[in-house]
């Protein structure tokens, strides 16, 4: 290690949760290694044990304040199975879908405008004090106001379907506990066309950035990979709420297709590494070396055969035409993300015209089971919730594979690729250069708090250090 220089970016900013990056430079100033470290441990998979199954869809939302609806719905879908319910009443499923589209919309808008737009609008190397949403609003008040109003619309959809904007209670095992009153529906209908127009403008902004900066986008942390998502059963359309698993290789060759997501463990394996609290999943048939994959907006654009709303489908086709095949770009995730915003608003408008939302058949019943698996496409990608319960309705087993966990290897490769490109051989490392590394991480919109739980023998270590720096005592607990 002689001559090795360590650079640490801590914390990584404008992401949800806590993480850091370490970059090792050799004696010649070239990047030897670069890693994204998840430095917080939350342990939901452990402390959810013993809780009653009815509590789970509410408790697990505390994983995150940005995407609680995704955890709420994934857990509710798992508890549907345990309650013996395979098919929800139409009102229940459509209310859940409406909730989910509101969630994906508001989360994507938050990420694009509040977290990533400062980099895209002002440049990756712009002064740090300029790279924030307040400067975006100052520079373009109309754009800033739209960002706030669009997120507000999505949040109010969540409130109307889940009961609260954050940590709602709408989805329950077997269904939903409310419908959508006509006056609430009419309030949303009065706004939805404007939201769709604004979403199309945001899509044009994201697409324009990729097309106008094609050389930068092509060379920024890009690499071929496998991709995985849910697709709609039968026709392979984009479906954010339900479907079957599809995984494609780097050239678009199917690895598996139309897989029942309850069989996810037959196709995916979760690995751990000593330097992170986040797991590293890979596709079983390909092994750890070649089986890692990516999820999220761009993965969904790659795996979906088409999109079942017209404006988003036209945008999907344009993205594919630009790519000439699967798109492996890190920065083009923003383009894909805005396609999904358009899709979500189109689906919201479609559902608002559906009279089933005012139905009164909200909950189904079935024969009790002891295991359930719920899978959903969260804003950041595929989300898996797996539970077992005992005869007393208490949880005995919980396994969560969240979107950011699926993307762990991809993010680490992006970090190293960008570090090598922008830091190697530089006589002076500036804050702007380091922000390039953070830009690569932000493109995945990681939720680090969602992803921080360990599998196997990951130790939680505590050291008592004296005033002289000596270690007085040390304790470790394997979790």
Q: How much helix is in the residues?
A: 40-55%
CATH topology: Cytochrome-c3 Hydrogenase, chain B
Largest sheet: 4 strands, mixed
Unreliable stretches: 453-462
Shape label:
globular
Q: What is the strand tally? A: 16
* Name of the CATH superfamily: Cytochrome-c3 Hydrogenase, chain B
The total of helices stands at 17
Q: What is the spatial order of strands in the main beta sheet?
A: 8-7-6-11
Q: What key attributes describe this structure?
A:
16 strands, 4-stranded mixed β-sheet, 479 residues, 3-stranded antiparallel β-sheet, alpha+beta, Cytochrome-c3 Hydrogenase, chain B
Task: Give a verbal description of the structure.
- The structure is a single chain.
- This protein is of the alpha+beta class and 479 residues long.
- The protein contains 17 helices and 16 strands.
- Strand 13 and strand 14 (395-401) form a beta hairpin.
- Helix 7 packs antiparallel against helix 13 (333-352), helix 11 packs across helix 13 and helix 12 (310-323) packs antiparallel against helix 13.
- It starts with a strand and ends with a strand.
- 49% of the residues are buried.
């Amino acid at each position: 290690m002689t001559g090795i220089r360590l650079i640490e970016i801590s914390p990584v900013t404008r992401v949800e949760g806590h993480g850091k990056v370490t970059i090792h430079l050799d004696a010649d100033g070239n990047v030897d290694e670069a890693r994204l470290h998840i430095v917080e441990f939350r342990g939901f998979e452990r402390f959810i044990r013993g809780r009653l199954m009815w509590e789970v869809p509410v408790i697990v939302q505390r994983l995150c304040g940005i995407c609680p609806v995704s955890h709420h719905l994934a857990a509710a879908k798992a508890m549907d199975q345990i309650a013996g319910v395979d098919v929800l009443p139409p009102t229940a499923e459509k209310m859940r879908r409406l909730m989910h589209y509101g969630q994906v919309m508001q989360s994507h808008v938050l990420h694009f405008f509040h977290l990533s737009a400062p980099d895209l609008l002002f440049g990756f190397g712009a002064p740090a004090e300029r790279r924030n949403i307040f400067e975006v609003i100052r520079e373009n008040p109309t754009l800033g106001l739209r960002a706030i109003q669009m997120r507000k619309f999505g949040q109010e959809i969540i409130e109307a379907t889940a009961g609260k904007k954050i940590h709602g209670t709408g989805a329950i095992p077997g269904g939903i506990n409310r419908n959508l009153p006509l006056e609430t529906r009419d309030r949303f209908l009065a706004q939805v066309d404007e939201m769709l127009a604004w979403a199309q403008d945001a899509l044009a902004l994201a697409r324009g950035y990729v097309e106008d900066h094609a050389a930068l986008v092509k060379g920024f942390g890009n690499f071929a990979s496998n991709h995985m998502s849910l697709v709609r059963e039968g026709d392979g359309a984009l479906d954010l709420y339900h479907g079957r698993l599809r995984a494609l290789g780097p050239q678009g060759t199917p690895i598996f297709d139309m897989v029942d997501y309850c069989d996810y463990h037959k196709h995916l394996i979760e690995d751990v590494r000593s330097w992170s609290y986040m797991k590293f999943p890979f596709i079983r048939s390909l092994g750890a070396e070649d089986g890692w994959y990516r999820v999220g907006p761009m993965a969904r654009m790659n795996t979906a055969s088409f999109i079942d709303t017209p404006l988003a489908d036209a945008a999907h086709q344009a993205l594919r035409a630009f790519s000439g095949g699967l798109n492996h770009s890190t920065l083009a995730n923003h383009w894909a993300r805005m396609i999904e915003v358009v899709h979500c608003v189109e689906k919201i408008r479609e559902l608002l015209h559906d009279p089933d939302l005012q139905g009164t058949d909200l909950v189904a019943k079935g024969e009790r089971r002891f295991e359930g698996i719920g899978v959903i496409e969260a804003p950041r990608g595929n989300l898996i919730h797996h539970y077992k319960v005992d005869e007393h309705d208490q949880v005995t087993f919980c396994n969560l594979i969240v979107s950011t966990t699926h993307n762990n290897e991809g993010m680490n490769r992006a970090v190293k690729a960008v570090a090598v490109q922008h830091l190697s051989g530089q006589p002076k490392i500036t804050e702007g250069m380091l922000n390039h590394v953070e830009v690569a991480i932000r493109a995945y919109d990681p939720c680090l708090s969602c992803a921080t739980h360990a599998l196997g023998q990951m130790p939680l270590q505590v050291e008592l250090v004296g005033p002289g720096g000596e270690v007085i005592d040390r304790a470790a607990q394997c979790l």
